[in-house]
Amino acid sequence: MEQNRTRRNVLKLMIICFLCLVFALLVGQPGYAEEKTPKFPIRPMNFICPFVAGSTADITARLISKNAEKFLGQTIVVVNKTGASGTIGIAAIASAKPDGYTFGYTSPSGMLVSPFVEKFPYDPLKDFQQIIQYSEATFAIYVRGDSPFKDFKELVAYARQNPNKLTYCTSGALSIAHVTMVQVAKKENLKFNHIPFKGGPEYQAALLGGHVDFVAGDFNYSLVEAGQIRLLALMGENLRPEYPKIPTLKSLGYDSPDVPPAPIYQNIAGPKGMPHEVVIKLEEAFTLATKEPAFINGLKEIRFPVVYRNSKDMTDYMANYYEFYRKMVTEMGLGKK
Questions:
Q1: What class, spelled out in words, does domain 140-254 have in CATH?
Q2: pLDDT tens for residues 143-171?
Q3: How far apart are CA 34 and CA 21, in angstroms?
Q4: Distance between CA 79 and CA 90 in Å, rounded?
Q5: Exposed/middle/buried for 88, CB within 10 Å: 0-12, 13-18, 19+?
Q6: Buried b (16+ CB within 10 A) or exposed e, 191-206
Q7: Rounded to the nearest 5 degrees, what angle is found at the Cα of 191, between the Cα atoms of 186 and 195?
Q8: 3-class SS at 198?
Q9: Contacts of residue 140, Cβ cutoff 8 Å, sequence gap at least 6
Q10: How far apart are CA 299 and CA 137, in angstroms?
Q11: Hey, where are the domains in the chain?
Q12: Strand 128-136 relative to strand 140-144: parallel, antiparallel, unpaired?
C-alpha cells in the first residue's frame, strides 16, 4: 500500500517537472515574447507640422520623417495643422492618443510665449514628451536686395529718426521673432509697425512685393544667394558658417535679459503618457535618421545645421527657456490676467 502511494507521488512529480519544462521552452520562443510585448510600430504614423506646406518647418519635418521611416519600418505622414502662431498644431499633438503614432514639431512661439499670454488647452512642460531636437531654424532680420539699409545699425538709426515709418512682419503676433523685435525696439527706444502673417512664404512675398520694409523670421536661402533679400542680423544663438559675414543680435550687443537669443529649435515631441519603450524606439529611430547622409545633405541644401539634443537634454532645454520667457512676458505686461 505504502509502496503504491510512493509510486504515485513520484509519477506526479515527474509530470509536474515535464510540464514546467514545456512551459519554459514555450516562454523562450520568439512568438511567445512577441505576444507579451507587441511590436511597435505596426501602422503608419503622423508627424504634425504647425506651419504651412513649403515653410522651413515643413521642409525639415518631411526630411527627418523620410529618413526615419526605414528605422521604424512604417510610413510617416506629415500633416499640416496651421494657425495661431503654431498653437493649433501643438494642441493637436498634446491631445493625441499617447500611443506613439502621433508626434510633431512644437514651435518655440507656441511653447514659450503664447501660453503666457492666452489660455491654451495644453501645458508646455506637463503635456508633452520630448523625443529629440534635430535642427535649428535660421531666423534673421532682413530687407529686400535693393533696400537702402546695408546693415542693422543703419536700419536702427533710420527708425530712431523716423518713428512708425518702418513696417515689418513676422509669422504671428507674439511669435518668438515678434517678441525679440519688441525687446529690440524697447532697448533702442524705437517704434515700428508690425504686421503678422501665417508663415514664411507669405511674408517673404510681402517683402518682395514692397508691402513691408523688413522681415523678422525665416527665409528661403535661394533668395539670399540670388540677391533678392539682404540679411542684416541673425536672430539665433550662434553665428552660422553658411552666412559668415552676418552678425547675430548677440554680437551686436543685444544679448541681455531684455533681448535673449531667440530659441529656434526644430524638435519632435509627442503627447505625455507614451509608454517608455515607445519613446525609446522613437528616440533611437530619429537619432539614427540625423546621422543619415541624405538627411545631413538635405539640411545643407537649405543651409540648415544639424543640431542634436536627446530626449533628456531637450526636456531640460525647454524647461530653462520656459522659465526665462515666463518672466520676460510678465515683465512686458503681456501675461494672462
A1: alpha beta
A2: 999 999 999 999 999 999 999 999 999 98
A3: 20
A4: 12
A5: middle
A6: ebeeeebbbbbbbbeb
A7: 105
A8: coil
A9: 216, 217, 218, 219, 231, 232, 233, 234, 235, 246
A10: 10
A11: 45-137+264-331, 140-254
A12: unpaired
163 contact partners, CB below 8 Å, separation of at least 6: 190, 191
Scanning the structure block, which residue is given the C-alpha cell 493649433?
88
* 141 neighbors 214 (Cβ within 8 angstroms): yes
16-30, 76-90, 289-303: segment of lowest average pLDDT:
16-30
CB 270 within 8 A of CB 102: yes
Residue 224 pLDDT: 96
Contacts of 259 by beta carbon, 8 Å cutoff, 6+ apart: 180, 183, 184, 187, 249
Name which of 94-98, 239-243, 258-262, 310-314 the model is least confident about. Answer: 258-262
Res. 319: pLDDT tops 90? yes
Inter-axis angle of helices 311-331 and 176-188, nearest 10: 40
Which residue type does 168 have?
A: Y
- Give mean pLDDT, residues 118-123: 91
Does 254 or 63 have the greater pLDDT score? Answer: 63
Q: How far is CA 9 from CA 6, 16, 23, 108, 158, in A?
A: 5, 11, 21, 72, 101
Give the Cα separation of 10 and 7 in Å (integer): 5
Same fold, 45-137+264-331 and 140-254: yes
**The CATH fold of domain 45-137+264-331:** D-Maltodextrin-Binding Protein; domain 2 (3.40.190)
Tell whether the model's pLDDT for residue 101 goes beyond 80: yes
What's the rounded mean pLDDT across residues 278-293?
98
Contacts of 84 (CB under 8 A, 6+ apart): 110, 114, 172
Residue type, 117: V
For the chain, how many residues are written? 337
Phi then psi for 72, rounded to 5 degrees? -100, -20
Task: Tell me the per-residue pLDDT of 46-55, one tens digit each, with 9 for 90 and over.
Answer: 999 998 898 8
Q: What is the pLDDT of residue 165?
A: 97
